[in-house]
Design a protein that fits this description.
With about 230 residues, the chain is of the alpha/beta class. Helices cover about 40% and strands about 25% of the residues. The protein has helices at about 35-45, 50-55, 75-85, 110-130, 150-165, 185-200, 205-215; strands spanning about 1-10, 20-30, 60, 65, 90-100, 135-145, 170-180, 220-225. α4 runs parallel beside α5 (about 150-165) and α6 crosses α7 (about 205-215). The longest helix is centred in the middle third of the chain and has 18 residues, at about 110-130. The two termini are about 35 Å apart.
């Protein structure tokens, strides 16, 4: 069984593409859920006070109680430290989808779930074809706050039609939705999604980190849409 966890950063928009030029989806393939969960909990424990001090918008803590790790609430120092902490022991792989809002055909935005489903299929198809992802059963967990972009049934049905019925690239596929505060692995995807979004906004700070992620093979692919950008 393969486990994929998905979250997003930015907005799918054409009207405000000049303000929000990038939409990012992050797909984290987790090879060892138990050890990754332990690593994340250990990072939180070891950096608890520092995380609490920088959580100005109370997204990580609620009335002093820890809720969930949120990439958007971490500073660059903690983001780099957490990335190094989690990318240890070959227990995960990172796949990005980078959508250039200004280059997407207008009719896609009439129903945002169309482009969400479509670009996710394109990325999976590419990495199944090149054998980054294996022929296997797949369980995909998605942050339920992304439901504004997704038709609940259409994503699972669409991926099953394309990847199983048409191409026989996988054995089975199921999609489940979680509140990220109840799913540590979705929180990992949230973190890496925001990390790439932060990189797009300030490459100088994060370039060395992303070079390391590529060189150590934790960052497996960035799928750009449209592809000819």
């Amino acid at each position: 069984m393969e486990y994929l966890y998905i979250d997003e950063s930015g907005s799918l928009t054409s009207e405000f593409a000049f303000i929000h030029p990038n939409f990012v989806m992050c797909v984290v393939r987790v090879k060892d859920i138990t050890n990754l969960r332990k690593l994340l909990k250990r990072f939180i424990y070891e950096n608890y006070q520092e995380i609490k001090e920088i959580d100005e918008n109370n997204k990580i803590f609620n009335h002093g109680d820890f809720v969930e790790i949120k990439g958007s609430s971490l500073n660059s120092k903690l983001k780099k430290r957490l990335a190094d902490f989690l990318c240890n022991g070959n227990i995960l792989e990172i796949y990005y989808i980078h959508v250039f809002n200004e280059e997407v055909k207008q009719h896609f935005y009439d129903d945002p779930s169309l482009i969400y489903n479509y670009v996710l299929y394109l990325m999976l198809n590419k990495n199944l074809e090149n054998k980054n992802l294996p022929y296997d059963d797949y369980l995909i967990d998605i942050d339920n706050r992304n439901l504004k972009q997704i038709s609940i049934n259409s994503l699972e049905d669409y991926l099953n039609i394309e990847l199983i019925l048409k191409k026989r690239m996988i054995r089975s596929l199921n999609v489940e939705y979680y509140d990220s505060k109840d799913n540590l692995m979705v929180q990992v995807s949230d973190f890496f999604s925001n990390l790439y979004f932060s990189y797009l906004n300030n490459k100088l700070i994060y370039q060395e980190l992303f070079n390391d992620l590529k060189n150590t093979n934790y960052l497996k692919d960035i799928y750009y849409y449209p592809e000819n950008i």
